[in-house]
């Protein structure tokens, strides 16, 4: 079993309030959950910042190529979002 964990830092240029940021974030997370089944995603940092967010994403699979493929596809999906910019994406794999 392999667990892939990604820490993704995003910049939202549009929001001018936490409420606007939450709306954009909620829509993004719903699109991710609709397109990528069996993926866990959560906001892990940047809670009080209007234009910055850090997401934690995890994928579990039987082998590393599968997990790597899923995470790569997911990160590409996020990067194509027009309402945000990806600042960084750190990926780690844990083998069990």
From TrEMBL:
InterPro entries: DUF503, TT1725-like_sf. It comes from the Bacteria. This is DUF503 domain-containing protein. It comes from Caldimicrobium thiodismutans. The lineage of its organism: Bacteria, Pseudomonadati, Thermodesulfobacteriota, Thermodesulfobacteria, Thermodesulfobacteriales.
